[in-house]
Amino acid sequence: MFVYNLFMINICSNDDIFKKLEILSDAAKYDVACTSSGVDRKGKGGMLGNSVASGICHTFSGDGRCISLLKILMTNHCIFDCKYCINRKNNDIHRACFTPREICELTVEFYKRNYIEGLFLSSGIINSPNFTMERICETLILLRSEYMFNGYVHVKAIPGASDELLLQAGSLADRMSVNIEFPSESSLKKYAPNKSFNLISDPMKKIKDSIEMNRLSTGKSIKLPRSNINKYLPGSIFNDVAQIEGDNILKSSLITKQADIRPFVPSGQSTQMIIGTGDDSDYTILMTAQNLYKSFDLKRVFYSAYIPINEDSSLPNPDTPVPLLREHRLYQADWLIRFYGFNAQELLSKDNPDFNTYMDPKCNWAVKHLEFFPVEVQTADMASLLRVPGIGPKAARRIVTSRRYSLLDFNSIAKMGVVLKRAQYFLTCNGKMMYKTLLDEKYITNRLIGLNGNENRQYSTEKQLSLFDDFGLK
């Protein structure tokens, strides 16, 4: 097996590094899990780079993805045969792989030229999950200790890799992610026969527990089950010596002073689900996402509209439109769950399992629950205001603060950021609506869909959405 590894690396070593970069950066574009870093770390003397909490992804490409991270695969060789993946082992594509040092050189040289501010590193699985994860760990050790790179690093955890390797990677990376791929076990078995929910959820749980232990060790308040406190301490990042046993390349120990130990995955973990491949409904997807947030304390669940790239009888035809609008609605619903106090069960149900793609999820919920409306601006609490389409958290706070001192009208709340073209159907100011409105689901739905006509036309073409455009989220 080890001879096979050396052979695979050698056949790639003659490729020009820029050809490798072209192949492996293109192969990484189907993973959408790039977003703000969530980490604020200033530069240090003798070290290279920094990380900005407001968002390392300052710039976006035309398809909406971050371009300030060097986003590559270590290799597009893979022993798995996931039907949806361009890098599946049975695909006839040009293969390549980077050495750890090549990745470090590229990262630092790109950083010095101000092309990037960090690294997003994923990989196909070459030979075994442990072998692949060892190469990722070697890259991170070189990058942090020899090249002194202090910028943002996001790495993919390889399902099936050992606990020690996950802990080693997490002690050097800012964010880790394990892609769950599908919201149901049946879809995962159908499209990724080499994977299982247990194979994916186990590393997610280990990362979560290690983040909690790190917070506990630094004196931060956290509710941690007693049974988990000592679970992963032997050989973990909390020892003075971080070492991966059995790795011929990583025999030298990474020794640090206790005061200098990096926080474990300070930007948390994330995951990704593919949209439009299987038969899973929006309700199933949202319920899974909600459970992931609760169970694994995820920072983000990303939704990736499936682009038909492989021919398989179980997959959509190559000429099937990419479900970008559906992807966008799921992002909006995800935002409502995380920041607006909604539950997945409120937005959708088994009887009504999919969103009306012509209307944003908040409006979709409001027209089906007209018994809660209209809401009176002068007396409604924060939770009720946040349920009104067109009112976001900032506008709601401004309303609650301003109404203590004066009576509000529609002009004043519009200046506070309320989007009246949506909110007017669900609000009253001092007992009066902006216009005479029939509180009828069909009537308001038709009016709102008419408002969103330009939006719907915009998404009729194959264009990746920006995660930060509003498009009626408020």
Automatic annotation (TrEMBL):
Which residues span the membrane? none
Q: Which UniProt keywords apply?
A: Iron, Iron-sulfur, Metal-binding, S-adenosyl-L-methionine
Domain of life assignment: Bacteria
**MF annotations from Gene Ontology:** catalytic activity; iron-sulfur cluster binding; metal ion binding
Q: Which InterPro entries match?
A: Aldolase_TIM, DNA_rSAM_put, Endo/Exo/Phosphatase_dom_1, rSAM, rSAM_sf, RuvA_2-like
Q: Any idea what this protein is called? A: Putative DNA modification/repair radical SAM protein
In its UniProt entry, the species of origin is given as: Lachnoanaerobaculum gingivalis
